[in-house]
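Re: that chain you flagged

S.,

Sorry for the slow reply, it's been a week of failed gels. I finally had a moment to sit down with the sequence you sent. For the record, here it is as I used it:
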Amino acid sequence: MRPTDDVSPHARIPADIDTPDKIVYGLTARQLATLAVAAVVGLVIFRALGALVPQPVLIAILTPIGGTAILLALGRRDGLPMDAWLLAAIRHTQQPHRLIPAAGRPTSPPTWAPPTTTPAATVPVLRLPANAISDTGVIDTGTQAVALVACTTVNIGLRTGDEQAALIGSYGRWLNSLSGPIQIVVSTQRVDLSGHGRRIAEQAATIANPALAAAASDYAAFLEDLAARRDPLWRTVTIAVTASSRAPDTEVLRRAEHTASALATLGAQSAVLDGGQAAAVLTCATDPFTPADVSWSRSLPDEAVTGSGGD
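Prediction finished late last night. Pasting the structure tokens below so you have them in one place:
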């Protein structure tokens, strides 16, 4: 074997991309502002009461102020700065905790419910993030339109160094071509193989060739047995493309098609989801721990469900 210059590309990506910049003494601008406000308040109190009260009393007054400022500036909880965490807690206490999915007041309690003297409070309306889903797959969120693109992954580790560099370059060009925010969602969900097995068994009964029908029945039995003995998972990659221009539906579909075409050049299978497929993805995303199947489309929220009913 002769030596080759084919070397896999390497790049260092910092792990603290979202970390705020340090301004002075390892403190961020937010921390400096908090400490500066506390220092000004302490200075005002010191000048106003320094000559009027004993020093121990003055220290007792300034210590809680300084401790609170240090806690707000340097403290963290649940991955958030302490001031942001306290602000979120205050907002949570001020918001209603009971919501209903429709406008208007809640219905009256049933007759068997015990009477209560406390007047029933008006329950606010539950605001959903999506207002409507069109047949073309455009999701209306009120402020912008969203389209979903489903794609597969590419095993870059099996490629040569030149191929890896070409794939990374193509991926970088797609990122640089974006003119709006996107979201890449990589999720792992349970697969409902038993449902696939039942559908295959139903189709096997309609196959005229006995050999093919037997093979389909065996495959359906294999899927049902696999679903009973194992907990199969699958990984999905969904890209949410957004647009908020004057014609958001047309623009978001154009961006989604561009995204699907750009990812197809990388060797990934990609497709823009229509309304039923987008509804299926959102339905499965609401409960990721329940076995679901997004391979078949769902009915849209405002679409009438009809079927052939018997007498």
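What I noticed first: The CA atoms of residues 263 and 270 lie 7 Å apart.

Talk soon,
D.
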